[in-house]
Queue: 3 jobs
Job 1
Amino acid sequence: MNPWLETLQKKNTQLRNDGLIRRLQMRESPNAPEVQLEGKKLLSFCSNDYLGLSNHPSLAEALAAGAVQFGVGSGASPLISGHTNAHAKLEQALAQTQNLHIPNVSSCLMSTGFMANVGALTALASLGQISFFSDSLNHASIIDGIRFAKTCHQATVSIFQHSDYDHLKSLLELDQNTLKCIVTDGVFSMDGDIANLPKLLSLAEQYSALLYVDDAHGFGVLGENGHGSLEYFGLNSSQLIYMGTLGKAAGISGAFLASGNLWIDWFTQASRPLIYSTNTSPALSHALMNSLELMHSSDGATRREKLFNNIHLWHKNAVFKRWHCLQSATPIQPLIIGDNKETLFVSGRLKEKGIWVPAIRPPTVPINSARLRITLNADHTPEMVYQLLHTLKEIEAEIDE
Ligand SMILES: *Cc1c(COP(=O)(O)O)cnc(C)c1O
C-alpha cells in the first residue's frame, strides 16, 4: 500500500478507537438560540455570540451599506494599500474602549484573534532575548504564537500552573532575561474562569514585565460598558497589551491589539500576519462600528443583563450526581463529564432530544476532563435554560439506570 495512505489510515483508526474523531456539522440557518442543523431544529448552547449580535438586522444592514460605500474587498495588505478610513475609524473606536486602562492607547486591527496572538507574540520576541510566562490553560493560538517566538527568535517559555501565581512568581524570580512577558487569557476559553489580572499586573510591575491579556471572551461581556476584563478590574498600566476579538460578543469577525502607541507601532513594523496578509474587508470594519455602538447602547446593557440573569439561573440549578460544573462567572459554563465516550454519548443524546452542545475532548482540554462546553447568551430565554437543565437530568438518570 501507498505509505501515505497507510500512515493516514492508521492515525484515523487510532483517533476513532480513542473516541477523538472530529466532524464538521452543517448549520442551515443563521446563528441564534434556535438553529436548523442537518434538517433538524435544535436549541443551541454552543456559540460564542454572547450578546446575540451575530444575526442582528442592523449589523446586516451596516455590512451591506459598508460594502456599497467602501467596496467588498480591501485589495491589499494594510501597509501596501489595503488600509482605509473605515479601518482607521474602527481602530480609533476600539482604542477608546481601553483608554481608561492603558496610557497613550492606540490599536491595530488583525484578521483574527489567532493571527493577533501569533503576530504580536512573535513581534515581541523579535525585539531581543525574551522570556514568556504562560498560563497552562492558555488558548491554542497563544501556545502557537509562543512556539513561533521560540523557533524564530529563541524566546524562552515557562508554563505556570493554571492561575497559580506563586508558581509564576517563583519562575519570574529564577529567570535571567531582562525582557519578560506574562501571557494570560482574560477569561479561560474552556473553563470560563476569569484570570486574577490585578495580581498578575502587580507581579508584572514587580518584575518590569509586560502583561499580555487575550480577552477573546471578556470583550463585550465583562465590565460595566462591556469593555472587557481591564474595565472589570479597573486596571491602568502602561505595561498592558490587550487583545480583544470581534467574532465572539462583537458578533462578526476579526480582532484588535490595544496598547501604548509605541507598541502598536512596533506591531505594524514586525507582526508578519499584519504585514503579509490581505487586510480585512472595509465593509466588516464599517459593520463592526455598528456592533460597538450596539455594545455601548442601552440595548447592549440590557443584553448583558439578560446574559448574566441566564448565568445566574444556570448556576442555581445545575446540580448533578455524576457530573460537576466548574465555578464560572462568565457565559462559559463547562459541565465536566470526564470520560470521552460518555461525553460523546451525552452530547449525542442531547441532540436527539433537540439540544445542541458539543463534546469537548482532549487535546483541547486535559485528559480525563472531557466536557460539555455550555455557552449562554443574551437571546436565550429562561425557559430555554430550564429545558437544557431538565434534559441533562433526564439523560443522567438514563445512564444511572
Ligand atoms: C477564540 C479565541 C481566540 C481566537 O480568536 P479568533 O478571532 O476566533 O481567531 C484567541 N484566544 C482565545 C482565548 C479564544 O477563545
Note: The pocket of pyridoxal-5'-phosphate is lined by residues 112-114, 139, 141, 185, 189, 214, 216-217, 245, 247, 255 (CB under 6 Å).
Job 2
Amino acid sequence: MQKLQMVDLRRQYLKIKPQIDDAIQSVIDSTMFIGGSEVAKLSEELAAYIGVKHAIPCANGTDALQIALMALGLKPGDEVITPSFTYIATVEVVALLGLKPVFVDVTTDSFTMDPECVRKAITPNTKAIIPVHLYGQSADMEALLAISEEYNIPLIEDNAQAIGGNYTFSDGKTVKTGSMGRISCTSFFPSKNLGCYGDGGALFTNDDALAEQIKMIANHGQKVRYYHEMVGCNSRLDAIQAAILRIKLPLLDGYCDARRMAADYYDNAFKNNPKITTPFRAPYARHVFHQYTLKLTGVDRDEVPKQLAARDIPSMIYYPVPCHKQNMLKAYGTANDNLPVTDRLQDCVISLPIHTELTEEELSYITKNFLEIIG
Ligand SMILES: *Cc1c(COP(=O)(O)O)cnc(C)c1O
C-alpha cells in the first residue's frame, strides 16, 4: 500500500497525464499565457456545466468572494451574514473591504447556515448573505432564498467546496450548487473537487450587468484598456490553469462519484459505532464530499489524529478555531458571539482522507484502524 494522503493528486494526475501534458505544452507553444482561447472556452464550459449565463474565471476563490462583494457595491460598515464555521477566506474578504461580518450558527447535522439564525441576524444594514456549502453539501438554499427574497438581500454562494453538487427544491427541481445565488464563487485550489495545478477561481451569475461589473473589477476597473472607471484588482486565471481545468471539468462528475463511493464505504463501516456520527446526507442535496467529516462523542478527539498518525493515517480538523474566535477579527469583538453549535463542533469534528483515488484496500485499512482507536 502506498503512503496514505488526505488528497492524492499524483495518482489522479497519472491517469490523465498525456492529456494534461499536451494541454500545458500547447499553451506554452502558443505563448498566450494570460487570457486567450483556453480561458474563453473554459468560461463557456463552466457556465454550461453549472447552468448559469456567465462564468468569470479569476485568480483564486478568495478573490472571487472579494470581487462578488465589490460587484454588489457594498460600502464600509455594511453587514454581511456568514457562518463562523467555515474556512477563513469567506470572512476575511468581508473584513478586508471594511464590511462587518455578522456570524450565524450552523445546524448540528448539516454543518451549514441555519436559516432561522439568518432571519434573526438581519438588520437594516444587512447587505449580503454568504451561505457556504461546507464539506461538499449544499446549504438549505430554498429557505435561504426565501429570506433573501423577503428582505431583498442578495445571496452569494460560497461554492468552493461543493462544485459538482446538486440542490433539489421541494417542487422536485434539481439544480447545481453555484447556480442559485445572485453571484456564486468557487475555487480551483488543487485539492478542491475541481482543482487546477496552482491557484484559480471563478464567479458565476445569471445577471448580465453584474457579469460586466465583475469582469471590470477583476481587470483593474477597466472595460476599455487604460480607461479605469473604478478601483478594481488584478485577478486572472492563467491560461495553463484554464487548459488543465478544461481537461478535468468533463471528469468532475466521475470524481464526485468516486468521493461519494469512498464516503459510502466509511458510512457503512462506522454506522454501528455509537461514538461516531457519520455525515448527514440532507434530503435536498447531493453531497460531493470535499471532506468526509465525522462527529465524535465520548472520545478524546484531540488524541485521535495522533493515534491515526502513528498508524500512518492522515486526518485533519476542519477547522480547529471558528472564524468568530480568530485573532484576525478581534476588532469586531465577535469572540463571545452566541454560536453554541459552532463552538461544540469545533471540539468534536474530525476529517478522514477522501479523494478520487482511494482503493478498497486503503479504505479497509483506514476504517479498521479508526474503529480500533475509537474503541
Ligand atoms: C478554499 C476555500 C475558499 C478560498 O479559495 P482559494 O482558492 O484558496 O482562495 C473560500 N471558501 C471556502 C469555503 C473554501 O474552502
Note: The mean pLDDT is 97.
Job 3
Amino acid sequence: MSKRHWCYGVFICIAGGAAVLVLAIAIGVGVYIHQFCGTQTSNSRSALQIFQDEFKRLQEDFPEQSQNLWLRSGKMMTNHLNKSHPDEPATIILTAAQDAKHTLLCLASGLAQTYAFALNSSWLVIHGPSQAKYDDSTAKLNIDEKLSSGFESRHRAAVLNHLETLPPGSLLILYKYCDHENAAYKKVALVFTILLEDSSLEPDTPLPELEEKVRDFLWKQFIHSGTSRSHQEMDSDKLGGVWSRISHLVLPVFPVERIEAGNCPFDLE
Ligand SMILES: *[C@@H]1O[C@H](CO)[C@@H](O)[C@H](O)[C@H]1NC(C)=O
Ligand SMILES: *[C@@H]1O[C@H](CO)[C@@H](O)[C@H](O)[C@H]1NC(C)=O
C-alpha cells in the first residue's frame, strides 16, 4: 500500500467512525424524545382513565340516584380533566332534602375525592356550620385561607358543605374562586352542598325546577330571612353574582339507607 492509499484508508476509517457515532447519538436522542413524549401522553390519558374507573366505583356506593346526577357530574368532570388549561374550575352544586342529609355530604366527598384522586392529589371539606358563629368578614377570611392554602399544597378539590348556613357576606369570597375567567385556581373542582328544608325530594323533579327551588331557598336564607344576622354585606344583586358563578350544575341527591345510618365510605374530615 502506498503512503497515499494508507492516508485515504485512515481518513475513511475516521470519517466512517464519526458517521456511526453521529448516527448512534441521533438514534439515542430519538429514542429518548420518543419515550419522554410517550410518557407525557400516557400520563394525561391515565388521569382521565383513572377518573372514569373510580367514577364507576363511586356509582356503586350510591344506588338509587338519578341518571342525571351521574351523567351530568361525570361529563362535567371528564371535560374538565381532559383540558390541560381549563378556563374555570369544575363547579357542582349538590342538593338534598332532610331525609338525605348524610348522603349529601358523603356523595359530595366521594365526587371530590374521585376528581382529586385522578390528579394524584387530595381534597378538603369546609363545613358551613363551623363558620356560622363568625361575622361575615371573619368567615370570609377563614374560607379564603382554607381554600388557598389547600390549593397551594396538595389539594385539587374542595367540598363547601351546607352553603346555606354560612354568614351571608362570606359568600362573596366565591367571586374569587368561581369566576368564569378570573378564578384564582382553575385546575380544581369545587363541590357545594345545599340542604333544603323539605322532608324529601320528588325523584322526578325536573332539573330546572330543582335549580329554581335551590335558588329561592338561598334568597330566603340570605336576603329575606329578617333574622338578626348581618345583611349589610349581602344584597340580591351580589347574591345573583355569586349564584351565576356557582350554579352551572345543580343536581339532586337521594337517601341511601346505609349511609343515612352512618356508614359513609369516605373520610368526612
Ligand atoms: C378529550 O379531548 C379530545 C380532544 O380535545 C377529544 O377528542 C376526546 O374525545 C376527549 N375525551 C373525552 C373522554 O371527552
Ligand atoms: C403522586 O404524589 C406523590 C406525593 O406528592 C408523589 O410522591 C408521587 O410520585 C405522585 N405519583 C405520580 C404517579 O405522579
Note: The pocket of 2-acetamido-2-deoxy-beta-D-glucopyranose (ligand 1) is lined by residues 48, 78, 82 (CB under 6 Å).
